[in-house]
Amino acid sequence: MAQQERSAEGELSLRQKRVVVLGGSSGIGLAVAQQVIEHGAELVIASSNPQRVEQAVAILGPNAEGHALDLTDEHAIQTFFQKLGSFDHLVFTAGDALRLNELATADLKKARGAFELRYWAALAAVKYGSPQIRAGGSITLTTGIAGQRPRKGWVFGASVCGTVDALTRALAVELAPIRVNAVSPGVVRTNLWQNIPDEEREGMYESVGKTLLVGRVGEASEIARAYVFLMQEGFSTGQIVVVDGGTLLV
Prior knowledge:
single chain; alpha/beta; Rossmann fold; seven-stranded parallel beta sheet; two-stranded parallel ribbon; 7 helices; 9 strands
């Protein structure tokens, strides 16, 4: 196998690599896409909202292409990767708006919907995308600290995150030598909280931030650096990288 290009710091270079970000039109996914472009990669983003995809590509520039893709449709995912051809890194950041409910009042149908996008879609993306990944490539999934530190009302979120944690480790074994890791964010300012009214959402950010060791909630750009690290760092696999402002410690 040809030796891969590395930076002066010994990191694998993303220059001229092809990176696919599913969920790359907003939030953490868009932040990952922006940083990947800055590192000189060719980028493909896909998500379900055509208008948002178009807006993201306009921001990202000529080295980015965008596709509208229903990530809950297995056949659509299969077709997408068949047409896409080979690439180097797959990032899955897609997620629906967060719903916090106690079990007694929870809508189980909506809970199943969360698994459809955050687990089953990720699994389908890996199934159909991994055969296209070039030597030295990687997969980075997205989980969350709810799997390790659930709070009241987080039953379904914690369940999904715990499932993705286990999936990451299993895929690292199954797909070796492709590296498979996941990023586990804490509370971050993204559109995943859009179901909460503006004033209430800002209050939540402030109150949660005061409890954290860093004194604030995270920004999407900060979390995105963890994904870039996992693409460039060629020795980690089966790992859950926590970026949570110290949430697990308080």
